[in-house]
């Protein structure tokens, strides 16, 4: 692994120096000054010389780690201009450049603004003192300040454009609009009944309508009464949740609604209120609502490989899921949006712990661990009164709901596959541009809709829902059977696609 990683970060460039071909190699993480000194050393000239590179079309090539790779037949021509200033002046310039290079390298290693300020201030003071001692003119000191300020501005601009920069677990979340922004909808009995079905089609509902449907679920399940929640607070909480879902192709507020609606449907399908408390139902529903809050559209693998702030903060352990939990807690910490504000301290702690446990369970890296635990409990004889048994059941339920689209009819589920692939392709394109590993199932050049779904349905969805059906038999007909039909449909789609490509 170390050898492969080293090869990926090394560049080889061919140079023509004094009509002789030379080959140099350097790390992509080298600084421009390192490459400049390497070329100067090969050319046997002072490292303070002015060195320029031109390609076969006489186009200037920058001496940076990002210079394009060439071949031995098309080397870059090296032109050297010897320094014309006195050695003392060169030493002064060397001191200035060395200080600027040190600051640049330090800034490139971090995106922490507070450290930027302290490091830049320290370096600037060092440069000023050195220049004063060596008698450099005040104009050159100001020039040095401008250079460092320019570097600072460039890094800060880069920091603002960083994909995860806007995600912070420390930010204060406030509601941007108040309750009157969405009206109270009167739901027909047909809609109320349809809302309890796994076949529910969310594509026909606008965001404000989905907010009203979620509000209805909390009232209908008795959760507003259970937690003594102010109905206006429930509206504000739902609005704030909606505002904190991003406009991603897949992980957006409509996905949040679908997962919550499926949870609501499974509660009614399995008559869960006969086996668990209303508090547990509230934990299941609220975890479903909050499970992907502020999702950036790039998964945990990207977060870890790109060494984002979230991956660093959570030590590469479920960074996104931990962030979803943190944002959910921040929303509840706002008194205007806290649907559990009227429960006592111990109960709130228990509810928050339950929601956190379920959101963390949606990390697919823990799939085998959770399913094995649930199967072991079932084989020993499942006990609803056993907290550990009940916790594993709740984790399996939210996992089922999170990836349940293929349970729905084809006209509902297939557009979600397109949305998911779009988000995958966005990530893989970014990973390619940043030199990060790309998962084959996300690569637009390798994956197709059937290939993306067949294995997932066959080896993840069907076994998981079949396991849940052992405890609740009604799941078999309503959910497992549609999954098997979906698998057969995608296999047929794959076969027809292969025949079409063969005939053409």
The outline comes out as elongated
Tell me the number of strands.
5
Major beta sheet, strand line-up: 2-1-5-3-4
The named CATH superfamily of the domain at 195-403: 3'5'-cyclic nucleotide phosphodiesterase, catalytic domain
The CATH topology of the domain at 195-403 is Catalytic domain of cyclic nucleotide phosphodiesterase 4b2b
The first-level CATH class of the domain at 195-403 is given as Mainly Alpha
Q: Spell out the helices and strands N to C.
A: HEEHEEEHHHHHHHHHHHHHHHHHH
Described by strand count, sense and barrel closure, the largest sheet is: 5 strands, mixed
Number of H/I helices: 20
- Estimate the strand proportion: 5-15%
Overall structural class, as computed from helix and strand content, comes to mainly alpha
The appropriate CATH architecture of the domain at 195-403 is Orthogonal Bundle
Active site: 251
Pathway: Purine metabolism; 3',5'-cyclic GMP degradation; GMP from 3',5'-cyclic GMP: step 1/1
Enzyme class: hydrolase
GO molecular function: 3',5'-cyclic-GMP phosphodiesterase activity; metal ion binding
